[in-house]
Amino acid sequence: MRIFKKAKAMNKKNIGILLPMLATSLFTQAQGNIRQPNVLLIYADDLGYGDLSCYGAQKVSTPNVDTLAANGLRFTNAHSVASTSTPSRYALLTCEYPWRKRGTDVAAGNAGMIISPEQYTVADMFKEAGYTTAAFGKWHLGLGSESGKQDWNKPLPVGLADIGFDYSYIMAATGDRVPCVFIENGHVANYDASAPIYVSYQKNFEGEPTGKENPELLYNLKHSHGHNMSIVNGIGRIGYMKGGGKALWKDENIADSITAHAIKFLKEKRHTPFFIYFATNDVHVPRFPHERFRGKTGMGHRGDAIAQFDWCVGELIKTLKELDLFENTLIILTSDNGPVIDDGYDDKAEELLGEHDPMGNLRGGKYSCFEAGTRVTFIVHWPAKIKKAKERKALVSQIDFLDVMATVTGRGNEKNLSPDGQNNQASAWFGKDKNGREILFQMASNHNISLRTKKWKYIPPCKGAPMITWGPKIETGYAAEPQLYHDKGEKYNKASQKPKIVERLQKIIENIRTTPTNSKQ
User: How far, in Å, are 348, 359, 386 from residue 63 at the CA level?
Assistant: First the structure.
């Protein structure tokens, strides 16, 4: 790792890329002399294991995603690292477990940059391999050098350019948190000098209405719990904000905006290999899809947001085909964590759910220790490499993203490039290895770490209520006794019958909490 960190530091001084760029991936060797593949990561938000029609959903149709699954690999035992957003995204981009670094809990909108510039990221790896890199959509990993000290009216001193992204058009945090503006390359996009931006997570600004005190101004969405602070676009948010003017987003246009910017980037960079991190806000709250999609599913805004997500996927696919890039573009589609139905807005998601099961017959959901918290949709599509559609049961984790991509681009070697990823998982991600990982780890919102093997799911004892106490109707999985499950639905606790297995798995968890999987030397 030291040589990569040193190279990164020198790159930031514009000295250039030191590492050789002539290595060819084992995959491209097999395909002849085609150039390195483009890589498009489509990262959904709060999308459940059962929310796509290719994963069994009946009430919502996702034809564009289904096309990827029908011509690629559809995984049924793939996992994000955490059951909440910020830690899962941190783990994906750094391939370091989030419990190793403070500040990786669900971030406030004015959090400082959580990934520090000296950390090695997926984007850094792609840049060293000669790729142009870009990020679009939800960020939620902090911006600026210090929490709560950002001046949103000036260029931010620390941003995505410091961790390997050449271009970025992102939401400062997430849809339900202020500031409700896009950040383009470290500046507020469409900045309105007549309406300077001020943000606080401690107190409101004098004279500014709030959802709690001015519910009559919530003309687009009302809150069910929380989300009753500053009002933007007729929707209450978490945190307080003043100003913004023409820079403020309209929630119904978010999907269109990030998709349009991604398409523009594709057209401009079509002649060079690229890595795109396309992180949608769908289906995270507040769900307020464009009117083109409202009423499409009969499941209210949540179902319609799934249809909107599928449209975004379709627009990207169409553009790749138009630019003759589709065959050699590796597309990975997945989600940051599992689903939640009522996460703070009265959008009738629960009432209109009907027989649709976002959890896909799994237990729990977002925030939870149970499977629905981290078992996510995971589709790998690469026409130049994957010639036959298959369902794959291999155990895979997003913690391996950096090292798998290093193999794809020819940057991989005998040592892992990331703190916690495994460089031997590419064969599982591309359908050659039917087993995948022997062990993967899942972190719940209370930091309890669960462990999954191909056969067992182990949840250590922890404190906490069995149900979320502040809003969503989700089982937490928190219990005073150990839990050991062999069944997909996690209904039958076998811990008392298998004490030796419990003891062995508990020791593995205790070790992973304190010792990195890989040496950083």
Answer: 25, 20, 20
- Both tokens of residue 226? 């929380």
Which of 164, 120, 17 has the alpha carbon at shortest distance from 518? 120
The residue type of 382 is W
For residue 89, pLDDT beyond 70: yes
Q: What percent of the chain has pLDDT over 90?
A: 90
pLDDT tens column, 180-233: 999 999 999 999 999 999 999 999 999 999 999 999 999 999 999 999 999 999
The string of DSSP letters for 294-324 reads TTSSSSHHHHHHHHHHHHHHHHHHHHHHHTT
Say what the pTM is: 0.94
Amino acid (1-letter code) at residue 42: I
For 252-297, the pLDDT digits (tens) are 999 999 999 999 999 999 999 999 999 999 999 999 999 999 999 9
CB-based burial label for 284 (10 Å; 0-12, 13-18, 19+): buried
The secondary structure of residue 413, as a DSSP letter, is -
Q: To which residue do tokens 């950096």 refer?
A: 402
User: DSSP string covering 165-232, please?
Assistant: -SEEEEESS-TTBS--BEEETTEETT--TTS--EEESS-PPTT--BTTT-GGG--SB-BSSS--SBEE
State the pLDDT at residue 414.
Answer: 66
For residues 328 and 320, the answer to whether their CB atoms sit within 8 Å is no
For 367-394, the pLDDT digits (tens) are 999 999 999 999 999 999 999 899 999 9
Q: Is 251 helix (H, G, I), strand (E, B) or coil?
A: helix
Give me the residue spans of the domains in the chain: 2-192+247-429, 440-514
CA distance 233 to 248: 8
Q: How far is CA 275 from CA 21, 41, 132, 135, in A?
A: 16, 8, 6, 9
pLDDT, average across residues 326-333: 98
CATH: 3.40.1190.10, 3.40.720.10, 3.40.718.10, 3.40.50.970. Which one for 2-192+247-429? 3.40.720.10
Beta carbons of 83 and 338 less than 8 angstroms apart? yes
232 is written with which tokens?
Answer: 């933007």
Match 């995984």 to its residue by tokens. 75
DSSP 3-state of 138: strand
CATH of domain 440-514: 3.30.1120
Question: CB of 242 within 8 A of CB of 194?
Answer: no
